[in-house]
């Protein structure tokens, strides 16, 4: 788990600025959801925190250390599951451990445990093409968590799933986060998803600045969520 500090961050592509002076503090073990209109720079923010895009000015610190490039401790999760089609579920989940040269026995044990925790016990030998979209997202989640990231950067990972599968993936994410707390920055267009998952919801404006941060207190009450929902929607 890590603290992420974003300080007066400006990021752009060529001469066009996207994020203009964004400051945000993401606490250790917090789930921060980021929402905002299309094109406001949500993915750009994640890429910058991942170390894939340099800041034009300002800085990002993870546990006090400036981000200067990618790091194994910061994992990106996408809508596209990114699974290797020729590798079984087991071998896909083992991937971050193979890269770290974790011994075979330990690799197998850790991967099997995560496959069980995401509800896919019995599917270890299946290939990605033999699984549904929701199951493939579970494999992606297991693979990400097997790498014990300190920060998970999720870019609309459940965006392509049907409503029911999406709800079960949201619950699964909260369950695994409770079992193994981690700092999560989760981008979504879906305000209800943001309020369900997030401890706080950061709303980016079209101008590339932070428009609002809304706290979503846990445990949520039925009456608090509509109020928070209205507060976010009036900004969009
Ligand atoms: N590789 C790139 N080169 C140039 N411009 C880019 C690049 N990637 C994104 N942009 C531009 O930067 C702006 C922000 O894009 P970004 O993908 O971060 O927005 P977003 O909020 O994630 O959008 P959406 O909600 O539609 O996914 C957009 O105007 C986009 O066209």
UniProtKB/TrEMBL annotation:
UniProt keywords (A-Z) are: ATP-binding, Nucleotide-binding, Transport
What positions does the domain ABC transporter occupy?
A: 4-231
Q: Where is the signal peptide?
A: none
* An MF annotation (GO) of this entry: ATP binding
InterPro entries given in the database record = AAA+_ATPase, ABC_transporter-like_ATP-bd, ABC_transporter-like_CS, ABC_transporter_ATP-bind, P-loop_NTPase
Give the Gene3D superfamilies listed for this entry. Answer: P-loop containing nucleotide triphosphate hydrolases
Question: Which PROSITE patterns does the entry mention?
Answer: ABC_TRANSPORTER_1, ABC_TRANSPORTER_2
* UniProt source species: Amycolatopsis xylanica
**This protein's name:** NitT/TauT family transport system ATP-binding protein
